[in-house]
Design brief:
two-stranded parallel sheet, about 280 residues, two-stranded antiparallel sheet, 9 helices
């Protein structure tokens, strides 16, 4: 399925990046067109769509832009996980929405119709077959990072989240409880886990390898498909709870290292994409 880039294709992205260097050096990447992209379930992608996606990822790896983008996730000053406190918990979903959007924009510079697919792990209970052998080496923070995996081997994260866990999270009515449940599962009295799994966190642990390393997990392309699924679940929940928003203010609402604010993330169609 995957084919290495040829010189013309690689140069195409390099030329675009040079002509549009402000996109990478400033921190607010604007949509390239008025076209709304539909992010598909990876299991419904055509062979061409899979090829475009992997070729575009490899081009970004070769240019160094992929590794640079990965490195943002390792900077805890961005406060985008619940481990960074209440603000981190609140920023988790909007920050990662922009993180995916920025990568998707770079992919679309190579092939305009490319999109980040999602991996619905409630139905596809193993690593997608077309991605099993896509384990590149990526230069991140000036060091080669090799994608390795050890799926379903950790006794702490033995299972991918089932549909019942997603339904439980979807039934939560406040943004705070929803984002907390989606990121790490629902905990009840005495700290007992109510969901079968720790949701987003469980998937990282289940895949294992570099996906289990918070600093370098985006090196693995599965990161993007996993987070696209989390983003999709949030988008579905938003439709049922339109008044429930993160509610960040001041500098906390600026999703650094970019200049987007939380408010700009509340509607995926305003960012140029929807889910199937």
């Amino acid at each position: 399925m995957y084919r290495p880039q040829n010189v013309t294709e690689t140069n195409r992205l390099h030329i675009w990046a040079a002509e549009n260097s402000f996109r990478f050096n400033t921190t607010h990447l604007l949509p390239r067109s008025s076209i709304t992209i539909k992010r598909k379930n990876q299991s419904n992608m055509t062979n061409d769509e899979k090829e475009y996606f992997l070729n575009s990822i490899q081009t970004l790896i070769s240019s160094g832009d992929y590794g640079k983008h990965v490195s943002y996730h390792g900077n805890h000053n961005h406060r985008m996980h619940s481990s960074h406190g209440e603000i981190g918990k609140t920023r988790f979903l909007p920050w990662h929405r922009i993180y995916l959007f920025e990568l998707e924009q770079m992919l679309q510079a190579f092939e305009q119709d490319t999109f980040i697919p999602y991996w619905d792990w409630t139905t596809d209970r193993d690593i997608p077959e077309w991605l099993v052998n896509f384990t590149p080496t990526v230069i991140v923070d000036n060091q080669p990072r090799v994608v390795r995996r050890s799926p379903h081997r950790s006794p702490n994260t033995p299972n991918l989240p089932p549909e019942g866990d997603v339904n439980m999270v979807m039934s939560l009515n406040s943004y705070g409880s929803f984002t907390s449940g989606l990121e790490g599962g629902i905990f009840g009295a005495g700290g007992l886990l109510q969901t079968q799994t720790q949701m987003h966190n469980e998937v990282h642990g289940w895949v294992g390898g570099i996906m289990g390393n918070i600093r370098y997990s985006p090196t693995d392309v599965l990161f993007w498909l996993h987070h696209a699924n989390c983003d999709r679940i949030w988008a579905q929940w938003q439709k049922e709870h339109p008044s429930e928003i993160p509610g960040l203010s001041g500098t906390d609402s600026i999703l650094d290292p970019w200049t987007y604010t939380e408010e700009e993330t509340l509607d995926t169609s305003s960012l140029g994409y929807i889910y199937d």
